[in-house]
Amino acid sequence: MLKKAKALFYKQDECESFYKMGKILGQGSFATVKLATNKKDGTKWAIKVIQKKNLGPEDDTALKSEVDVLQSVKHDNIVFLNEIFDTKQNLYMVMEVCAGGELFDRITEKDHYSEQEARFALRQIASALEYCHERNIVHRDLKPENLLYGDDTEEATLKLADFGLAKLLDSETMLHAQCGTPGYVAPEIVNNDLYGVKVDMWSLGVIAYILFCGFPPFYDDNNQALFRSIKKGQYEYPSPFWDDVSDTAKDLIDKMLVLNPEKRYSAKEVLAHPFMSNTRPSTRALPHFRKCMVSYNARRKFRAGIMSLQAISAMKGFTAGVKKDGGGGGAKLMAALAGGAMKEKEAAAVAPVGGGEEGGEGEKKEEEEEVVVVEEEALKEEAPPVVETGAGELTAAVVEGGRE
């Protein structure tokens, strides 16, 4: 099983002897995250419970990498790993609770959002990346789901989470594995080239773009078309959505969304850029941001919900749950994961996939087809994060003029 990188963190005791487990915060294919309370001092923690029996060789490698990285970092803008319990059946990772929610969720709730708020978020993310990159750690999955606030106060600290794809490199190592999240992945990964820490800076560029307008620079429902756009590196700042954004903010994005990783800005350079360091950003509200951001965020969560439910439905525990509630519980889960992008009635068509007491292969195939139909119909109902060009054609802001 997992090699113990630092024995100080590991305990052979049962985690429940020290922590009282509470509600489930999240669930994946081989792990569940639960809110827990330290029985001794009453502090709250998020405990990632990994069932060893569900781990394949690749999962085990990814878990070891995540543990190695988390045990080697300590930064205000990175989720803190407190300790690990290693038992025969499970591995428990006791981690800092981030009760303030995701970055994109937080900013969609703001009545007033300006370049100042965008800079505050970018500075914290870049600070975390600078710390990691100085230690030859590449995250490889920088995306909104992995940017969490420590609490729900206005002054909450933004933290980088989920180091499941992170790698600790030596000074001469380059990576080759294709991984990441489609809309945020760097062109060198798409091209299957060797790459290093600069892939994180491309992802930060995508996030920065969204933080100023509410939709991504590269978008397509079809991943292959999306990847072609990313490889070309072609995007623009369409009117009226970018009319109120400063030239210095656009220049910062241009320095990150560069095809050549050697010319792409580092985290240190981002922090030293005039927009981040020398100028006083505008506090004037970005007039088009909220409408675009709400639409994009709902669409993003819906698609994530589809993938999450399909992954979870393969697990025995979820199948049993579907049998018990006849699919209604799954429908509620889908509706919740969709963030309002899909009604519970529509979600019911998706919930039975991978489970249920009745139906043979033919029925199962029909259910799988329903997933696609429901997804497409719901996405049509949800306003897509697209803009209209001067030619009257809908585009995802993927146009000529790529940066070299």
UniProtKB/TrEMBL annotation:
Transmembrane segments: none annotated. Keywords: ATP-binding, Kinase, Nucleotide-binding, Serine/threonine-protein kinase, Transferase. Residues 19-276 form the Protein kinase domain. ATP binds at K48. One of its GO terms (molecular function) is protein serine/threonine kinase activity. Residues 349-370 are annotated as: Disordered. Pfam families: Pkinase (PF00069). The keyword ATP-binding applies. Belongs to the protein kinase superfamily. This is Protein kinase domain-containing protein. The lineage of its organism: Eukaryota, Sar, Stramenopiles, Ochrophyta, Bolidophyceae.
